[in-house]
């Protein structure tokens, strides 16, 4: 039997997935949890073979759960299940150690097949999402520029951003100017929209 943990903050989805997987003769749901912290605790307690975790959960998100399980329970393969998978999420999930990445809208039997694959040592990425990831534009901004841009969302004054990042106001202005130039836009508000739409933030 392949022992499975389910972590999703929506009870209806958790119950539906458990019912679906219980139909499979070789799969056993050993734990269900509604948040990321609970997922890590349940994984330590039940030692599942595969953890199916939602990307967006309270406490720890799916990426943080994946990274924590990779450290604490490396024998447990993680499958990220998401309602809104975008190329940057896929890249982050694989970097964190996920073995599978699957949209919630996938056909019913797909999840069971993916669980078997990752349990057997393979990886699985939804083909449409993989194609999107291959054609997505890379982020041209540095981590520091992204940090400054995140804080600039609501037209935050430069002095406030400088305090929050421990940078001088001049350095913050330089970063914002570089962001606007790299993205070829007219303002930092427009730069924020471009970065948000590309999921770089």
- Radius of gyration (CA) equals 20 Å
Whole-number count of domains = 2
Write down the CATH class of the largest domain.
Answer: Alpha Beta
CATH superfamily of the largest domain: Response regulator
Which parts are unreliable, with pLDDT below 50 for 5 consecutive residues or more?
Answer: none
CATH architecture of the largest domain: 3-Layer(aba) Sandwich
Please count the helical segments: 10
Largest sheet: 6 strands, parallel
Percent of residues in beta strands?
Answer: 5-15%
What string, H for helix and E for strand, traces the elements in order? Answer: EHEHEHEHEHEHHHHH
For the biggest β-sheet, the strand order reads: 2-1-3-4-5-6
The shape, in one word, is: elongated
Describe the structure.
This protein has two domains: 2-134, Response regulator (Rossmann fold, 3-Layer(aba) Sandwich); 143-197, Orthogonal Bundle (Arc Repressor Mutant, subunit A). It is 53% helix and 15% strand. The chain has ten helices and six strands, in the order βαβαβαβαβαβααααα. It has a six-stranded parallel sheet with strand order 2-1-3-4-5-6, with helices on both faces. It is elongated, with a radius of gyration of 20 Å.
Task: Write out key terms for the chains shown.
201 residues, alpha/beta, elongated, Arc Repressor Mutant, subunit A, six-stranded parallel beta sheet, 10 helices, Rossmann fold, 6 strands, 2 domains
């Amino acid at each position: 039997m392949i022992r499975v943990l389910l972590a999703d903050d929506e009870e209806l989805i958790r119950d539906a997935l458990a019912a679906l997987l219980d139909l499979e003769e070789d799969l056993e749901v050993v734990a269900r949890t509604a948040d990321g912290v609970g997922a890590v605790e349940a994984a330590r307690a039940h030692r599942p073979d595969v953890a199916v975790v939602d990307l967006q959960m309270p406490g720890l998100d799916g990426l943080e759960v994946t990274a924590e399980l990779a450290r604490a329970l490396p024998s447990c393969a993680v499958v990220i299940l998401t309602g809104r998978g975008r190329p940057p999420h896929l890249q982050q999930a694989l970097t964190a150690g996920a073995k599978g990445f699957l949209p919630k809208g996938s056909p019913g039997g797909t999840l069971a097949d993916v669980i078997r694959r990752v349990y057997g040592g393979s990886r699985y990425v939804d083909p449409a999402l993989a194609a999107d990831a291959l054609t997505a534009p890379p982020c041209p901004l540095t981590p520091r520029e992204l940090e400054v841009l995140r804080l600039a969302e609501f037209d935050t004054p430069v002095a406030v951003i400088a305090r929050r990042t421990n940078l001088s106001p001049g350095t913050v202005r330089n970063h914002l100017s570089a962001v606007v130039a790299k993205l070829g836009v007219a303002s930092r508000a427009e730069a924020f929209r471009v970065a948000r739409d590309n999921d770089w933030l």
